[in-house]
Design goal:
The chain has 467 residues and is of the alpha+beta class. 37% of the residues lie in helices and 28% in strands. It contains 14 helices and 23 strands. It has helices at 5-15, 33-51, 65-70, 72-78, 104-114, 161-181, 227-232, 256-265, 293-309, 323-333, 343-348, 370-395, 403-411, 424-434; strands at 19-20, 30-31, 55-56, 62-64, 83-88, 91-99, 123-132, 147-158, 187-190, 202-209, 215-225, 235-237, 243-245, 247-253, 282-286, 314-316, 337-341, 350-355, 361-365, 397-399, 415-420, 437-444, 459-464. α2 runs antiparallel to α6 (161-181). It is globular. Ligand PR8 is lined by residues 102, 104, 133, 135, 144-145, 148, 153, 197, 217-220, 222, 250-256.
């Protein structure tokens, strides 16, 4: 799988019924029922986190050209990626309408109308919508798509710069909680100047290391300063009676989160889903013979009901096919726990549990402790997936002291930490010489020399092959 991760990833999406890329538009795929469920459960986690202090809203998909064009730096960043609606039926439209590549230019003109005084602040809103980007780099399902079907975008406005910086920290904590729930480890860094969000003051990013060593940016948080406030005239009357521009932030995650769940936890047999997002957490597989068939199925039904009453998502695979085939299918689909029940188990009043994350078979008594035992197994399985993923990340971040060593380590599947003076030209030089991307800076340092310029180092930074 590691040797050929891209192929594995492509195949598993089709085999496990996640998406179907045969839809006849490049970069746009269909969510199939199993994938849709994973997507739904993942979205529910982030929604729950946002609902604590954000309001959910829904803006139109189309953005007038005049609004999109208003913020010069922003539009420059997106101009090659925008899809345009230019006709309504047979009529040419007077004003071209953009399919939102992201919604700053749709939302902020409305913020300008809604925000009047300091009492209206802070304003914190989010929406989960589809956005469109005419990506010119190689498209890949979930990873780089042209219709981002699951774009969670949060947009906040504050009275002071300090509050906006605090909001960035709040988003970082929120994303940590989100990714922790999915068992996804991450590297957080501040993007270099040349890679920050168009129009922002600074960008904080979450990257994950995929099994082939390439990193995937799975979430970004941007401090927009007052740039958009000035463009869209978003002002408020402060306590002192003065009219001031707001400070803004925005933060986004996308379908890529699902890609990372699939890629990071999967193995040669298929998916290994964290219980929190798995469509079913327990799949019961009856072992049926002619004799005793009814009793076994009846007991499976009872188990299902008991577990569902305990809040779990459970299914019985009663298809008329060999049990071996069912086991393989559910290994492929990554159900966290399989429960096997045959006539002999029924006699002994037990069921055999198998966790997807390990080979061992465990006998579970069919008594009042059943639900608790299963919940405990799910919990262990969730922790073990997280621990394995974290161990992988820890093994794959290495420190290098010269550019040759950087190349050696990146080529063998690592992300590399190095000392950097922080100068932009030196950063570009490092990227040009190595052919990799500087992800961003992590900590400030007071000792050591820059890997490329030999000047005093200011930061530790990360460099990697990226998606
Ligand atoms: C913003 N505005 O837009 P961002 N396919 C899949 N995922 C993608 C793609 C793509 N083509 N492009 C980006 N992403 C801000 C924040 C509102 C919200 C994912 O930020 O352009 C990446 O994981 O950085 C990225 O981190 C996230 O969307 C947000 O996009």
């Amino acid at each position: 799988m590691v040797e050929n991760f891209d192929e594995w990833f492509h195949d598993i999406l089709e085999q496990a019924d996640i998406t179907d890329s045969r839809y006849p538009i490049k970069g746009m795929a269909v969510w199939r029922p199993y994938g849709f469920q994973i997507r739904k459960h993942s979205m529910n986690i982030i929604k729950k986190l946002l609902d604590k202090d954000h309001d959910e809203v829904l803006f139109p998909l189309l953005v007038p050209e005049t609004e999109l064009a208003k913020e010069g730096i922003h539009v420059k960043g997106f101009e090659d990626e925008v899809y345009w609606v230019t006709k309504g039926g047979k009529n040419d439209l007077n004003e071209h309408l953009a399919l939102r590549p992201t919604s700053e230019t749709a939302i902020y003109p409305m913020y300008s109308l809604w925000i009047r005084t300091h009492i209206d602040l802070p304003i914190k809103m989010y929406q989960i919508v589809n956005t469109f980007r005419y990506e010119t780099k190689h498209t890949r399902p979930l990873i780089r798509v042209r219709e981002i079907t699951t774009f969670k975008e949060a947009h906040t406005a504050h009275a002071t710069k300090e509050e906006s910086d605090e909001q960035i920290q709040d988003f970082i904590e929120m994303y940590k909680e989100f990714f922790d729930d999915l068992g996804i480890p991450y590297l957080i860094s501040k993007r270099p100047e040349w890679d920050k969000f168009p129009g922002s003051d600074y960008t904080m990013a979450f990257d994950v290391i995929m099994p082939n060593g390439k990193t995937l940016q799975i979430g970004t948080i941007h401090n927009l300063g007052q740039t958009f406030a000035k463009t869209f005239d978003i002002t408020f009357e402060d306590k002192d009676g003065e009219h001031k521009y707001v400070y803004q932030t925005c933060a986004g995650v996308s379908d890529r989160v699902i890609a990372s769940v699939i890629g990071i936890h999967g193995d040669d047999k298929g998916l290994r889903l964290p219980p929190k997002v798995s469509p079913k957490q327990v799949t019961i597989i009856p072992i049926l013979f002619k004799k005793g068939k009814e009793e076994v199925l009846a007991k499976c039904g009872e188990i299902k009901e008991t577990l569902e009453n305990a809040g779990l998502r459970v299914s019985i695979d009663d298809r008329d096919i060999r049990p071996g085939k069912k086991f393989n299918d559910w290994e492929l689909k990554g159900t966290p726990i399989k429960l096997e029940l045959g006539p002999r188990d029924l006699q002994n009043n037990i069921t055999i549990a198998m966790r997807r994350d390990e080979e061992e078979k465990i006998e579970i008594p069919l008594d009042e402790s059943l639900a608790n035992n299963i919940i405990e197994l799910l919990d262990e399985s969730s922790k073990s997936l997280s621990a394995q993923a974290l161990a992988f990340q820890e093994e794959h971040v290495k420190f290098a002291t010269d550019l040759d060593e950087v190349a050696e380590l990146v080529e063998s599947g690592n992300v590399v930490k190095f000392l950097w003076c922080g100068d932009e030209e030196v950063g570009h030089e490092i990227e040009e010489k190595t052919g990799y991307d500087v992800l961003g800076i992590q900590e400030e340092v007071s000792e050591g020399k820059c890997i490329a310029s030999g000047k005093d180092a200011k930061y530790t930074a990360l460099i990697a092959k990226t998606y």
